[in-house]
Design brief:
Elements (H helix, E strand, L loop, with lengths): L2 H21 L5 E4 L2 E4 L26 E6 L9 E2 L2 E2 H19 L3 E4 L11 H8 L4 E8 L10 E6 L1 H15 L4 E2 L2 E2 L5 H30 L5 E9 L11 E8 L3 H8 L1 H25 L1
Parallel strand pairs: 3-6, 3-7, 7-12, 8-11
Antiparallel strand pairs: 1-2, 4-5, 8-12, 9-10
Helix pairs in contact: 2-7, 4-5, 5-7, 6-7
């Protein structure tokens, strides 16, 4: 190491040390003429939850709440193709569904985002949980790369294997701090908490699957479905153990016909009307069975 570099390190080391301490919000005693000065830097709390969106519709809190999640957003455009970006396509669909549900009345609605905002993936189902949502619908659009002929919508629910893994992780994180479907986890052992969460998640899976079936039924003849329209996967947005949830892959932005249909006024109306029918039938069934 040259002498010049050694001299630079001698002069820069204290500056870098002070900068590091300030960055981590630590106090720095600075002795000067018999006094001690302290530099304090306010830092945001780690893991602070995002603000909850506005709930639209009836003020009656007994009315069911649907949280609609437009995938991606902000710095994350999602899939792209044929001149379309997923984040824009799905936001248009989410707003169309919100407006249709509000037009019909009787259901409360909230959007995880109503503009080009970026949300961390794990924040999306957590928003639904914190709002005590009765249904969570995450809307996405797919990409088939260079294979532009692939088209049609698919509906995802959480797979059984992913459900068990998610239940164990959720119980570990929420033990002694939360409740699931009204069952308190506080004071329970890790094993019991995991079992309780897993049982809850299985019930939610069955309910989610019922809603997925309703979407395909109500969309027949109106919506264009992929030949394999019902799927299950280990998707992060579906892992809330106490909120029925589906991920709706609306179509392929890499298919010009799909993309044009999903962004047209007629296509958004068809989607919103079919999905709104499925939502209403779903809640009617839940009400009659409770």
């Amino acid at each position: 190491m040259s002498l010049r570099i050694q001299l630079w390190l001698i002069f820069l080391a204290p500056v870098l040390l002070v900068a590091g301490l300030v960055a981590f919000g630590l106090t720095i005693p600075i002795p000067h003429l018999g006094r001690e000065y302290v530099v304090r830097v306010a830092l945001p709390e780690a893991g602070s939850p995002v603000d909850l969106p506005e709930i639209l519709g009836p003020e009656d809190r007994s009315r069911p709440l649907v949280v609609i999640d437009a995938g991606h957003g902000g710095k994350d455009p999602g899939a792209s193709g044929a001149g379309y970006r997923e984040k824009d396509v799905v936001l248009g669909l989410a707003k169309a569904l919100r407006d249709e549900l509000l037009r019909q009345g009787g259901v409360r609605v909230a959007l995880t985002r109503d503009d080009d905002t970026f949300l961390v993936l794990e924040e999306r189902p957590e928003i639904a949980r914190r709002m005590s949502a009765d249904l969570f619908i995450s809307i996405h659009a797919d990409s088939a790369g260079e294979i532009s002929a692939v088209n049609g919508a698919s509906i995802y629910t959480l797979s059984s294997e992913a459900s068990s893994e998610a239940a164990a992780r959720f119980a570990e994180r929420e033990n002694n701090a939360d409740a699931v479907n009204g069952v308190q986890l506080a004071g329970k052992s890790d094993e019991i908490s995991t079992i309780l969460v897993e049982l809850s998640q299985r019930r939610v899976q069955e309910t989610s699957a019922e809603f997925a079936r309703l979407i395909t039924r109500e969309g027949q003849g109106t919506l264009r479905f992929h030949p394999q329209s019902r799927r299950s996967a280990a998707l992060a947005v579906l892992r809330a153990p106490d909120v029925p949830a589906v991920l709706y892959e609306s179509g392929f932005v890499t298919n010009p016909a799909d993309a044009e249909r999903l962004t047209s006024a007629e296509g958004k109306r068809d989607f919103a009307e079919a999905m709104a029918r499925a939502v209403r039938i779903f809640f009617a069934r839940q009400s009659s069975s409770s």
